[in-house]
Each structure stands twice: as C-alpha cells, then as structure tokens.
Automatic annotation (TrEMBL):
It comes from Antarcticimicrobium luteum. This is Translocation/assembly module TamB. One of its GO terms (cellular component) is plasma membrane. InterPro entries: TamB_C (IPR007452). It is found in: Membrane. Pfam families: TamB (PF04357). Coiled coil: none annotated. It is a single-pass membrane protein. The keyword Signal applies. GO terms for biological process: protein secretion. Residues 803-1151 form the Translocation and assembly module TamB C-terminal domain. Its main location: membrane. The lineage of its organism: Bacteria, Pseudomonadati, Pseudomonadota, Alphaproteobacteria, Rhodobacterales.
Length: 1151
C-alpha cells in the first residue's frame, strides 16, 4: 500500500500545469511506465507494463501488466482501470471511484525472495495507521481472477468485488469473493472500526463445498465441505468475536476472542483509560481435519487459552498461555515493558506419547517420531538494580527417529546474563550432546559417529553481533574449535576469529568422499572476512600425515608429512596471495601475486622430486614454473615444464577474459624408449594455437618422432559446437612396428593424409594411408612378401582396402574391399591369387590361382569362401620323415644360454611363449574349394605317384569339416629293385587342416595278401608292411616283392632286399636329379620282369594327356599314351620297337 500510494503522490506532483505544458501525454506515459518498472522491479521481480493510457487524466488504463521472476511470468493483469478524483488529493483524500481489472492470472507461486526484512523486536500498541491522506476506494473489482493448479493445488476462477474507506482514523471495508467455476463457494467480509467511537464490527463468512480451495490448500483428508465464521460487534472495551470452523456439518473448532476494559482503581478518574484485557479460548476435535497419522498427537480435544492485558502506558502482559493436546502441554507467561524491553518470560513444554513408546510429530517432510521431550525457558530482564537480568534454557529429547536418522538422547543446557541497557544482549554458555546417533546412510554414520558434543561460551550483542568463545564440536576422533566475532547485517556479517580443525583418521570420511581416504590432518584458520562483501584477510596453516586418497597415481605423492601455509587477502583492490607454500615428501609448490581486474601478476613453481613415484620406467625430477602478467585486460605469460634428461615443454602467449588467445608451444620428450622400449629416440612438437572470441581455435603443429615419423597437423577446433576441421599429413618408417611383429618383420615407408571434419568421432575421419615397395618376412611360413603397394582409404566410419603384393617365391596377390570401423565391423574383402608360388622350402611346392572372399561381421563370425586351383604340385615325403637320419631331434635343455641366444631361438619359434593357444576371436565360417585335378606328384621312400581331385572345407575354423580328397591317378613304388604298382593313394585333410597321406601297394600270392603302406600326416608319414593272414613284416615284404617266403630266398636276394629297404628313408637320389635336369614329370631306374636293367620317363603333354616310355638293357623300347576321358574313364595306347601296338579303355572306381 505504501509503495502504491507513493507512486500516486508522485504522479500527482507531475500534474502541475508547468509540467503538463512541457510534456506530451505520450512522453509522460513512457516516463511513468519506466518509473513503475524500475521502481517496482528488483533482483527477484521484474515488472513489465504494456498499453498505459491516460497517465495524467482522471481515468488511467493499463492494457497488460506482468510480474516475472527467474522462471518466467507468474502474474498477468489485463484490462486494469483506475478512475479517480485528482482534485480530492488537494483536500487530503485519495478518492478512487473504481479500481477494476478484467482479468488477473496467477499461474504459479512466485520464487521466494533472496532476503527477508526482519521485523523490529519491539512490540507496538494496536491502532489504525494514520496515513498522510484519507483513502477511499469506491469500487474494487476483478471480473476473473484465475489461479493455476500449483498455487493452492487446485485450478480455480474467482470474481472479486468490494470497497475500502480509510479516512479520519476510521475503517470501513467490504469484500466479496465468489468462485465462477463452482457456484456456492464464497467469502464475504465486512469490517468496520473507528478511533473516535471505538466501535468494532466484524462479519466474516467463508463457505465451500467438498473439494474446495481451502480444504485443498490445507491438504485436509477427503477435502470436506467447510464453513468458517468470525462475527462480533461492540466497543473495544467490551467486544466478543465468536469463531467457529465446521466441516461435514460438525463443529471442529469453536470459541471466542474477547476484549474487556479494565476497571479504574478506587479513587482514579473514571475517564482515564485503564487498559484492555484480552483473552482467547478456542477448542475442539481437529483430528478429522488432519492426516490419520497425526491424530494420536492431537487426540479428541486440542485447546488454546490465552489471557493478557494491554496497559495504557504500552506495557503488555500475557498472564497465561496454555496449548494442550493428547501429546503436548505448553504453558507460559510473558511481560514486556512499554518501550519493548523484556521483563519476564517463562515457558514450559512437554511432549509424551499418549500410548506406546513414541508419537508422530505433526511436521512436514519425512515422518519424525519421538519418545519424550521437555523444554524449560526462563528469562528475567531486570534481576538486579543495574537493570541486568539472567536467563536459562533446558531442552531434552529421547528416542527421536526419522527414516534417515535415529537418536537415543539429545540434551541442551544454556544459561547466562541478559542486558537490555542498549538493546537486547545475551551472554552465556551452552552445552549440548547427542548420544546413540545413527544414520541410514552408512557413509554418514561412519563420518559423524554415534556421539557428538558441543559446548562453549557466546555473547549476542545489542547491535546484532554474535561472539563465540571456545566453541567446540567434538566427535570420536575429530574436533572443531571456534573463537571469534560475527557482526550483524549492517556490516555484511563481518567475521573476525580463529577456527581450528583436527581429524585423527580421515578414513571415517571415505564413504562421503567415494574413495578410500587415510591419514591425519590439522588445520588452523585465522583472520577476518565479510561474506556478503566477499572480502577476507586470512592465514591458513595445515599439516597432514600419511595422506592417502585411494588413487594409485596420487597416493605416492601425498604420503609422509605435508604442510601447507596460505596468507592471502581479498578486498576492493583484488585478491592478493602474499604467500602460498606447499611442502611435502614428494610434492612442493610456491605461489605469490595479485589478481584484479587490471594489472594482475602471478608467479608459481611446483615440483615433483622423482617421476619414478608415478612410473617405474622414468626417474628424475619434474618442475613446473610460470609467470603471468596482465596489461589492461589481456594476460601475457610463459609456462615451462622441465623433465628428466632434456625433456621439456614451453608455452608462451597472451589471452584475455573474453576468451581470445595467441599461444606458441615447443616440446621435446627425450628417450621415448623409457615408455616404449621398442621405439628409441625423441619426440618433438612445436607450433601455434590461436583462439577467437567465438571459441574457435586455429592450430598449426609440426611433430617428429622415432622411426622417421614426421607429421604436420593444422586446422581449427570449435569449442561451442564441439567440432573440428583438422588435417594431418606426414609419413613414417614401417620398421617401427617390427618390435611388435616379432618374429616377423616389415620394411618400407607409409604416407598418411587424414582429415577430421566434424565432432571427434570416427564418422568424421577421412583420408588415405598408402605405401609402396614394402617388404615383409614371415619366418614361420618360410615366406617373404615383396613389393607391397596400395592404400587404405577412410570415409564414413569405414576403410576401403586396395593392396597388391608378391611372394618371394613367385606370383602375386591383390586385396580389396571395404571394412566398417564400428562394431560389428562388417566387411567384404576380396583376395585374388595370381600364380602364387607356395612352398615351405622343404616338403611341398605348388602354385595357386583363385579368389577368396571374407564377408560379414568380422567381430562376430565372418564367412571365408572361394575357390583355389592348384597347379603342378610337388610333395617330397622323404624330406620330412622316414630314415634314422631324419628322426625327430630329441628335446634339448639349454644351460646358461645368453639373452642373445634366447632372442634368436624365440625369433626361430623354438621357445614356447605360451601365446600359441587358440585365440579368443570369433570362429570364421568356411566355404572353400581347394582344387587340384592332376599333376600333384608325391615322391619319396621309392614312391612316385600322381594324384588329382578336390578338397572342400566347411564348418568353422573352430570345427573344420573337410570333404573330398586328392586321389591316385597313377603311381609306383620301387623296392629291392622291383617296381610295385600302387593300388591306393589319397591325400585328405584332417579337422585341424593337417594334410594326411595314404599310399599302398598290395600283391596276392598263394600264401595270402601282402601290403606295403605309407600313411600319416604329411610332415611325418610312417612306412609299414603287413600281410593277411598276419605274419612278420619281413615275410610280408618277401611275399610282396618276390612272391616267396624269406626262407626260400638266396643270400644275395636278401642282401638286395636290405639295401633297398634303406632307400625308403632317403630321397629319390639320381632319379630326382635326372627328372629335374630333363624337366619331365617322372624318371624311373630299375629292372624288368626278366631282371634286365631299364629306365623310364613320363610327362604331361596337356592337362589330360600323359605319355611315358621305357628302354631296357636289351634294347627294347615301349611308348605309352594315356588320355583321361573323365575322372574314372581312361583310354590307353602303347607301341614297342617290335611293332606291337595296343589300345584299351580302363574304368576305375575306388570304394
């Protein structure tokens, strides 16, 4: 009201004729709008006025007015009209014909204000305010007042009408509020009082049906219908107001408030006022209006009784105050002198459960139960002749519990002196204790403990200051002690004192910190400070012992004894750090300087005694130094990080508060092998970094490193968008990867040209990595890959491969296709084989052509499919096994071998490193065809065989399912000068992809069958001879070769047999040399059926035409020609020197 009236009076002054002659209505309206908005707005409230017209007329209108806070508009007023009599102000009356509004919308409750003005502690006698002018409001009206649901818990539309007159010490007001959205709910108020007649008239009625505004706002159970009345008429010295609250047609609270004049003492002037006695007596059963849980506290009757006197001289006495319920008894008395000074105060209170161990307190928030509580407060404002008094307070509580807290016993006692000579001043001591303290939060329970005490002296001055003397909070192994002075609001709560903290075991705070803490700390803080001004002048001394934070990298740095001292001040001239020193076993730091809006300067130094505390691969000190200076608003500085050996990092440049920066940097990391032993050398980087006011960084960096690494990085980074536009170009020697590829090795150079365009994610990366002429050696496969050339192109979170290369033995390959770089890493990689020479340089040599495809999710089981066609293939069985000379080397134990010897053996694969087990990757699906239709030659042990066929690999790499075999086309076995025709020959694949060979020749005699067999894994076949029926091997061999028993053979023949058996363990000897020299596919030396010596040779004329010829010592020759019509059908023709010819068709099928 005072604010509105002040605005109106100011506007009245603006109505003077000289001003109206100079200011137009539009200008005046704008001036008033600005005045209203600026005057009524504050830090928590913003007023906006739209469409103000008639600012200096008798009828002023506002189209719209809004009130908003930090969350937006909460009140909107539309169509406001002020119709008033301007000339009545001259007669001292603020007369309004009508103050109305079409619509007021209160969307929600406003945010609470940051600060609240405290009321004066002095009591004042009641009377109506004497305003500088009389106030008459002829009509007050709001057509629609709309309340949002969050205001009282229920949306509602109201209509307000009434009038107000406050003039000459008299009040006459009428107010009517009705609900538009629910007829019948209404509030009607009529109130009158006159200082002259001393008559009071009050008639207040509020009625609403079930679910109304009042029951909803008070959260009454079942939202009952309500009726509240307060009515009374009479003079001030004989006035009674009857009060009743009814719900569901039953009275819940009833009683009266009475005012009675005191009788004049005997002999006193009856016309002299003697004061007013006031009393109130209200009682009833309020439990139906409360939640059921609170009903035990109040019971069937709750009563408030009050008796007091208001003396003519302003002295007020409350002789009796009684508030009772089933669980509560509160009574007391109070006497306040005319000037507001406290004379006496006495208050007793008790809470006890009506039944059971505890009772629920009627408090908001989590349910709070208590077993018992007692309160006694006594204050005597004038206990002696000096005007000084005393006071004491006792408070106790038992068995207090909440869902998050429990307390067995709480006690508080306080007493001291009371002085009102210059305002209210208290001086005393306080002692409090909590026992059996428990928390639902285990971390909080461990931190605070089960018992806490608080004691000390204090003084509350009349000016609002608070002094603490030896105030100490003590827990199980921690204390906080405070001595100092806290001034009142006028000084901004200025503090001057000393605080000492001590914690013997920081481990109790581990749960709150979320990590394992340890150690002991003491801290001493002294000085002055003003929280509201943000100023301070302090000295801090801290000492810690054996600190730990549960961080492996940090704990070694803070172990032992650490001390910290700080001497600093903050005021109008900025922040001054006079001294900052940290001194620890491993860490030390110093800083000093001044920070302010302009002209700041700061220098600092920090050091770590030995980097070995952080990493075992590096030792030596690490030091960080810096100097920063401010010229205007811009900062200039240099920072240096000095490490062991020659390592360093320098940063120089400027930056300002707006965010602009211009920096240069230069860094060198020496002896990288300390971190990566396989990469010796230095890493260097230098360049510039600039930042503009929009937060965009521009970077240019050149870097070099071991293995010929050279790179240039340039582009920009956008902080706000979180995006980048960077390019990286350079090259490196691939030999840098050799330490990680052992025993394999690579030689060559790779170039890269990459770009990051967008957020720092794989999808933003594009570019190309290429190489040319690279060579790779794979000792385990006895292979070298030559001339590796091609590129990997990156785009859209995928890599596209295009690589070619050749094997050292001959032939080439090409790898191409895309691979996704995000899970599950889908790929479609094609591998083309072009006359690839495959050899282990020992037992097998072949050539391969074909195409393979690896497709599907590479991380979740891709499919390897394709077809490989093998050309002429040589299998030398005698190169890997058979003779005594080729027997496996027994296990060798190496004694005292040197590191160099071990490295050599490891590179040769002769040391089991435990890493050869099955990998943890996904099983790869297989769909492969390995085709060799003919020209697969197997030799050794006297064997000469040609095979053909196909193998198919199905299943997965974890469970291979081989199908098919390489079958015998033709072949012989030479033994003891005789040639046996092979009757069986196959090459198959076992489940672990090991080739398995099986060759056999069987002869039938009158004594049975005899077979010689070469069978087993290709890297270790076994020769065996057996017969049916069973007989010794030498008997079986004699039957096979000579058709006779050993006993029937001559000594010469037996010697020949022994000599020939030895050839089973050797290679082909002379026949191999002749075959290789002539280029034919087969060469034989032996005897014919008559014992004459002979030589034979054979070769392929085309893929399915084979020819051989034989010449013996008698001059006889024979030429054979084989034409393979199909896998099972062969046409054969022959001619000899005698002119004999022959032709035939042969059908063969293996079962």
């Amino acid at each position: 009201m005072r604010r509105v009236l002040g605005i109106v009076l100011l506007l009245s002054a603006l109505l003077a004729p000289p001003l109206r002659a100079q200011v137009s209505d539009d200008d005046a309206g704008g001036l008033l709008v600005r005045f209203l908005e600026n005057t009524l707005s504050d830090d928590n409230r913003r007023i906006e006025v739209t469409g103000l017209e008639g600012a200096f007329s008798s009828r002023a209108t506002i189209e719209k007015l809004t009130v908003s806070d930090a969350q937006g508009v909460w009140l909107t007023l539309s169509g406001a009209v002020l119709d008033w009599n301007r000339m009545d102000l001259v007669r001292g009356t603020f007369s309004v014909n009508a103050l109305t509004a079409d619509r007021i919308v209160i969307a929600r409750k406003p945010l609470p204000a940051d600060a609240v003005d405290l009321p004066s502690p002095e009591a004042q006698p009641f009377s109506l305010p004497e305003l500088p002018v009389a106030v008459e409001l002829g009509e007050i009206g709001v057509e629609s007042l709309e309340l949002g649901e969050t205001v009282v818990g229920l949306a509602a539309a109201l209509q307000v009408s009434g009038r107000l007159s406050l003039a000459g010490g008299a009040l006459d007001t009428r107010l009517s509020v009705t609900r538009l959205d629910r007829p019948g709910d209404a509030l009607d108020l009529t109130a009158q009082f006159s200082n002259t007649t001393r008559q009071i008239a009050l008639d207040l009625t509020a009625i609403e049906d079930a679910g109304g505004l009042i029951s909803t706002a008070l959260n009454m159970p079942d939202r009952p219908p309500l009726l509240f009345t307060a009515k009374g008429t009479g003079p001030v010295d004989d006035f009674t107001a009857d009060i009743a609250l009814v719900s569901d047609d039953a009275e819940r609270i009833g009683g009266a408030v009475r005012l009675r004049g005191l009788e004049a003492p005997e002999g006193a002037d009856p016309a002299t006022p003697q004061g007013i006695r006031f009393s109130a007596d209200l009682a009833g059963d309020v439990t139906p209006l409360l939640p059921p849980d609170y009903r035990a506290f109040f019971g069937a009757e709750t009563r408030l009784a009050l008796d007091g006197i208001n003396r003519p001289d302003g002295r007020t006495e409350i002789e009796r105050l009684d508030l009772t319920s089933d669980a509560l008894i509160l009574n007391g008395s109070l006497a306040v002198a005319a000037g507001g000074a406290l004379e006496t105060a006495l208050l007793h209170g008790r809470i006890a459960p009506p039944s059971g161990e505890t009772v629920l307190l009627p408090l908001s928030g989590p349910q709070t139960r208590i077993g018992a509580a007692r309160l006694t407060l006594r204050m005597d404002g004038a206990a002696d002749s000096t005007g000084a008094g005393d006071w004491d307070l006792t408070l106790s509580a038992d068995r207090l519990s909440r869902p998050d807290l429990s307390l067995q016993r709480a006690e508080l006692t306080a007493s001291g002196a009371l002085d009102q000579s210059a305002g209210l001043a208290l001086d005393g001591t306080l002692k409090a204790g909590l026992r059996g303290l428990g928390f639902a939060d285990a971390a909080l329970a461990r931190a605070i403990g089960s018992e806490v005490t608080l004691d000390g002296g204090f003084a509350l001055t009349g000016a609002g200051g608070l002094e603490f003397r030896g105030f100490q909070l003590r827990g199980a192994d921690y204390t906080a002690t405070l001595n100092g002075m806290l001034d009142g609001l006028q000084s901004g709560f200025e503090m001057d004192g000393r605080l000492r903290l001590a914690a013997a075991d920081l481990g109790r705070f581990s749960g709150l910190a979320g990590r394992d803490l340890g150690g002991a700390v003491t801290a001493d803080l002294s000085g002055t400070g003003t929280p509201l001004a943000g100023s301070f002048d302090i000295a801090l001394a801290l000492r810690a012992q054996d600190l730990s934070a549960g961080i492996d990298q940090l704990d070694p740095l803070i172990a032992g004894t650490s001390t910290l001292s700080l001497d600093a001040a903050r005021g109008a001239d900025g922040l001054t750090i006079r001294r900052f020193v940290l001194d620890g076993t491993a860490l030390s730091a110093q800083a000093q300087g001044t920070l302010k809006s302009a002209g700041s300067a700061l220098s600092f130094r920090a050091a770590l005694d030995d980097l070995a505390r952080l990493t075992p691969t590096v030792s030596g000190p690490l030091t960080l130094t810096g100097d920063l200076d401010q010229a205007g608003r811009a900062w200039t500085g240099k920072v240096r990080l000095q490490g062991p050996d020659k390592s360093y990092a320098d940063l120089n440049g400027t930056f300002d508060p707006e965010g602009r920066a211009d920096l240069t940097f230069d860094a060198l990391l020496d002896r990288i092998q300390r971190f990566i032993p396989e990469l010796p050398g230095q890493l260097t980087a230098s360049g510039t970094a600039k930042r503009d006011i929009q937060g965009i960084w521009t970077l240019e960096t050149d870097a070099t490193g071991p293995a010929g690494v050279s790179a240039r990085i340039a582009g920009s980074l956008d902080e706000a968008a979180g995006t980048a536009d960077l390019t990286a170009r350079g090259d490196l020697r691939l030999e840098a990867a050799n330490p990680f590829l052992k025993p394999n090795s690579i030689a060559g150079r790779a170039e890269f040209d990459l770009r990051l365009d967008g957020p720092p994610a794989l999808r933003s990366l594009s570019g190309r990595i290429s190489t040319s002429g690279t060579r790779m050696a794979i000792p385990a496969a006895a292979q070298t890959i030559e001339n590796i050339s091609g590129s990997v192109t990156l785009a859209d979170s995928a890599a596209s491969l295009a690589l070619t290369g050749a094997l050292g033995a001959g032939g080439g390959f090409r790898v191409s296709g895309p691979v996704a770089l995000t899970p599950p890493y889908d790929g479609k990689i094609a591998v083309d084989l072009q006359n690839l020479i495959l050899t282990d340089n020992k037992s097998i040599t072949s050539s391969a052509n074909g195409r393979l495809s690896l497709s599907g999710p590479l991380a979740a089981g891709p499919l390897l499919s394709g077809r490989i066609e093998f050309g002429e293939t040589e299998i030398n069985l005698s190169a890997v096994s058979g003779s005594a000379a080729a027997a496996p080397i027994p296990s060798i134990v190496h004694l005292h071998d040197s590191a160099a010897v071990r490295a050599t053996r490891a590179r040769a694969g002769l040391i089991d490193t435990g890493g050869s087990g099955g990998g943890g990757g996904p099983a790869i699906g297989l769909d492969l065809a390995l085709v060799a239709q003919n020209r697969v030659f197997a030799r050794g042990f006297g064997l000469q065989a040609e095979l053909g066929g196909a193998l198919y690999l199905r299943g997965t790499t974890a469970a291979v399912e081989p199908v098919g075999q390489i079958e015998l086309i033709r072949g012989t076995l030479d033994i003891i000068g005789r040639r046996l025709k092979l009757t069986r020959g196959v090459v198959t694949m076992q489940g672990d992809l090991t080739p398995y060979v099986e060759f056999a020749s069987t002869a039938t005699t009158e004594d049975g069958k005899a077979t010689i067999e070469i069978a087993g894994p290709m890297d270790g076949p076994v020769v065996s001879v057996y017969a049916e029926p069973e007989r010794p091997a030498e008997e079986a061999l004699a039957m096979l070769v000579f058709g006779s028993r050993v006993a029937d053979l001559s000594p010469v023949v037996i010697a020949k047999m022994a000599a020939s058996l030895a050839t089973l363990g050797r290679s082909g000897g002379a026949s191999d040399k002749v075959r290789k020299a002539t280029g034919v596919d087969r060469v034989d030396f032996g005897t014919d059926a008559s014992g004459a010596g002979q030589v034979g040779a054979g070769t392929y004329l085309s893929d399915n035409v084979y020819t051989d010829f034989t010449v013996n010592t008698r001059g006889e020759t024979e030429l054979n020609l084989n034409l393979d019509l199909s896998k099972s059908l062969t046409a054969k023709g022959s001619v000899n020197n005698a002119g004999d010819t022959g032709i035939g068709l042969f059908f063969e099928r293996d079962y």
